[in-house]
Amino acid sequence: MQPPLLTKFGFRIRTRVGLVVDNLLIPGRDAAEAERKLLQIYRGCEILERTCHRPTSKAAPLTSYEDVISLITR
Q1: Where are the domains of the chain?
Q2: How many other CB atoms are there within 10 angstroms of residue 68's CB atom?
Q3: pLDDT value of position 32
Q4: pLDDT tens-digit series, residues 12-50
Q5: Which of 5, 32, 49, 69 has its CA 20 to 30 A from that of 39?
Q6: Cα separation of the two ends of the chain
Q7: What is this structure's pTM?
Q8: Cβ atoms of residues 8 and 53 within 8 Å
Q9: 31-64 b/e (C-beta count within 10 Å ≥ 16 → b)
């Protein structure tokens, strides 16, 4: 059984002292959970922007030892 896929939400915030922080990535099942986690870390911040980074459902193909060796010896 595979673990549930979490979506990463990107935030741009202004801290309570006025600094702008870009590219905060917070994982969550939905936007509300990610926002709740963000507000636990940055208490009193103002969210300026929120983006959604959906995970890809395709898993990386499994490679064998022979496949790796053939790539190295080319």
Answers
A1: 7-72
A2: 10
A3: 94
A4: 999 999 999 999 999 999 999 999 999 999 999 999 999
A5: 5
A6: 37
A7: 0.66
A8: yes
A9: eeebbeebeeebeebeeeebeeeeeeeeeeeeee
- Please name the amino acid found at residue 5: L
Half-sphere exposure of 42 (CA within 13 A, CB side): 21
Assign 54 a pLDDT band (cuts: 50, 70, 90): confident
Token readout for 6 is 């979490």
Amino acid (1-letter code) at residue 36: R
Strands 20-28 and 46-53: unpaired
Alpha carbon separation from 59 to 21, 40, 41, 55, 56 (Å, rounded): 32, 32, 31, 10, 8
